[in-house]
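Annex B.
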Amino acid sequence: MQVGSMGDIPFVVSYGKIRTFSDYGRSGSGRWAKHDLIGRKPVMEFLGPDVEKISMKIQLRTDHGINPESELERLRKMRDTGTVFPFILGGAPVSNNYWMLEDIGENVSYWRAGGKILSVTVDITLTEYSTEEVR
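Phage P2 GpU: predicted structure tokens.
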């Protein structure tokens, strides 16, 4: 069963294969300009919304039918080439915009002979990529 996808990487839960995420968090803020005035409090001006961020953990394990090393390479390539992609959850896009993989943190839990990874937890941060035209 597919839970969602991050570009061409599907999040799936099925017999023999589990690739999903945990600790999902989403944040966003507004952009504000502060205009300093002599002898008075500054005047704040709302500029518009800022890009949103999504953080989550992905556990990649060989006993879940996943090759952790090839999956890590795939994620690093997305980060290092500036790939932008739709992020889908429950069959619907998370926003009207695309996303980019801004940050990856890797924590290897278990190794096997020859230095091959058995299990790794990947912390990722996605940043919204606005597809609006600049006027």
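The longest helix spans residues 68-81. The two ends are 42 Å apart (CA to CA). Further annotation is deferred to the next reporting cycle.
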